[in-house]
Design brief:
It comes from Phaetusa simplex. The chain contains 5 helices and no strands. It is an all-alpha fold.
């Protein structure tokens, strides 16, 4: 996550962004280990611990933000900006948790391999591609379970997006009400 200039002076926000970046790197490393058949147990422990640490930092940021807004240390507009940044971190945390639980390549990796797989092999008909390693050997029930998990991850992302959009709608309505009152 990129730092927002208004939050760049907050070490807790910086630390949370750093932890999120480290978790993403550890998940990629774990996935690489798994593809090579190496043990990833140590990395799983580190990732789980780091995800918990990230959750605690996000909770602390929320508390600090709530206090700053309620005691008028910052303006409502600044509070809303910071809330959006905290929401972005929360969304990132949910994505990282989903990637961690998936214990496979991140969705972006899967998507890019699906899009380029036919071109790399020189096959133009996507139905002629070999079955991927992720699904090879899985039964119908396992495939359905994998599909449900992917849908749940997408639903979690949509829920986070929905809350951000509803807050922006509320902000827009409040701005409109304030303009009406001022006029």
């Amino acid at each position: 996550a990129q730092l927002h200039p208004l939050l760049s002076r907050l070490p807790l926000y910086d630390a949370a962004c750093q932890v999120a970046q480290e978790v993403a790197e550890k998940i990629q490393e774990r996935n690489r280990y798994q593809r090579n058949g190496e043990s990833s147990a140590k990395l799983n422990v580190i990732i789980r611990s780091s995800l918990q640490n990230l959750g605690e930092k996000i909770d602390q940021l929320r508390d600090l933000l709530l206090r700053a807004v309620s005691t008028h240390q910052i303006t409502q507009l600044e509070g809303d900006r910071r809330q959006n940044l905290v929401d972005d971190l929360l969304t990132r945390q949910k994505q990282l948790q989903a990637s961690y639980k998936n214990e496979g390549p991140e969705p972006d990796v899967i998507r890019s391999s699906l899009m380029t797989g036919g071109v790399k092999r020189g096959v133009t008909n996507p139905w002629l591609l070999e079955e991927s390693e992720e699904t090879r050997g899985l039964g119908f029930g396992d495939l359905r379970q994998q599909q449900r998990r992917i849908i749940e991850e997408q639903d979690a992302g949509l829920d986070a997006l929905s809350s951000i959009i509803s807050r922006q709608k509320q902000m827009g309505q409040e701005i409109g009400n304030e303009l009406d009152e001022q006029n």
